[in-house]
Amino acid sequence: MRQDILAAAADLLDRGGEAAVTLREIALTVGISAPSIYAHFTDREAVVAALVSETFDLMESDLRAAMEQAGPDPVTRLRALAAAYLDFAVRWPQRYRVLFGGLWSDRTVQPNVVANSTSRMGHSAFGVLLEAVDACQRAGAASDTDPFSDAAGLWAALHGLAQLSAVAPLFPWPAGLLDQLVSRLALLRS
């Protein structure tokens, strides 16, 4: 039943954004009474937090798959990861928005949601990016030796590009912008 509730919440989110995810609508979609949800989740925020966690897991899986398909070269793998990140934001726009909507921030979540480790959500997906940047540095393909800082900068740029691309699709984005961001922020040698 827990997975059915999460699947219904994901569908509602995909079709109508975070505001569409209500316990009433979830219950209607699953075919249960709204109070039945409380046997699995304490409240709506807990449902959304679980959905955020699943979405980060999905993102991590997509990033790892893109790197594996790219082959052994660390720079090619990093570029594939960056493209997969942007692709994820395009394929799942509502889920991507909810990932960074503040629900999992320690400052904004309810105490019961924080207790479920939401403050660490996304760390594993970020870890994939960190591994890719570190691999470039270890291979001598990047000029810096601080993979965490470089990965954090690249993540910020990828997130910014994903958000801006979504809200400004008519902007004349330069060809090759993603490659430029990856090269400059990961300090790739060429």
TrEMBL record:
Domain HTH tetR-type residues, every copy = 1-59
Under SUPFAM superfamilies, the record lists:
Homeodomain-like, Tetracyclin repressor-like, C-terminal domain
Task: Please indicate which superkingdom the organism of origin belongs to.
Answer: Bacteria
User: DNA-binding region spans which residues?
Assistant: 22-41
**Keywords tagged on the record:** DNA-binding, Transcription, Transcription regulation
A Pfam entry, by short name = TetR_C_33
Could you tell me what this protein is called?
A: TetR family transcriptional regulator
Native organism is Deinococcus ruber
